[in-house]
Amino acid sequence: MDGMTSPMMLSRKGDGIGWMTFNNPARHNAVSMEMWEAAEAILADFTADPAVRVIVINGAGGRAFVSGADISKFESERSSEAGVAAYQAQTARVYDALADCPKPTIAMIQGHCIGGGTALAVCCDMRICEERASFGVPAAKLGLGYPLKGIRRLVDLVGPSFAKEIFFTAKKFTAEDARLMGLVNRVVPTDGLEAFVTDYAATIAGNAPLTVGSVKAIVAEALKDRGQADNAKCDALVAGCFASADYIEGRRAFMEKRPAQFQGR
Fold first, then answer.
1. pLDDT value of residue 5
2. In CATH, what number is assigned to the domain containing residue 131?
3. In DSSP terms, which residues pair with 56 in a beta bridge?
4. How far apart are CA 109 and CA 242, in angstroms?
5. Do both 129 and 86 map to the same domain?
6. Boundaries of domain holding 252
7. 3-state DSSP call for residue 204?
8. What band does 220 get if pLDDT is binned at 50, 70 and 90?
9. Regarding beta strands 134-136 and 173-174, do their DSSP bridges make them parallel or antiparallel, or are they unpaired?
10. Which of 61, 158, 211, 225 is the most exposed place for a label (fewest CB within 10 A)?
């Protein structure tokens, strides 16, 4: 699935990184049903491919990450109750696939990150944006309802007070606002964003996949209510790292003062 899977969804792989690009720059990368369906297929392919160790999500054109739903498609895709339900089910599948992906995920954010774009970015493990980026969820200006799972993800990230501020005001927030809220991990100069993210992703891809994957899974368990975490699962993941060939390789590489060549086993 290298290359184009849909004219408005692009994917490529290289150096352990899978890149998924929303490619509708004329509409600030607003997303149609067809694009969500292609995104689901791309994510499934990246998740299944052992050569892909990190996934980066971005938007084409430099003016937007994703600006939410394509309003020009509302009449054809979301004018009926059944259409709304189908659209919501499809977006939920993509959000879940991204949030539950066992591999590290990074949102590389240029320009506007609005509505469904913010929801998509929140599903990633990390968000790295440029200085001009802006964020917002305009649901309150459109009369839209927002599901529990999406709000919970935002609350887990920024806390209840900032989550309420984002929804209650429906304002656009700056990159610095987002950094202070904890909505983004890093804010970098516009002209250095892609190089920064590529280097970050390459660093992660070069680390031990079993360790990285175990930490992602254990963090998810740590976010559960006390007493709800699967301790046996966490213990098994840790034991799997120590029993792996990568642990042997890591020790040898450290002693020999050379980069480790991890195989994920």
1. 57
2. 3.90.226.10
3. 19, 106
4. 36
5. yes
6. 208-256
7. helix
8. very high
9. antiparallel
10. 225
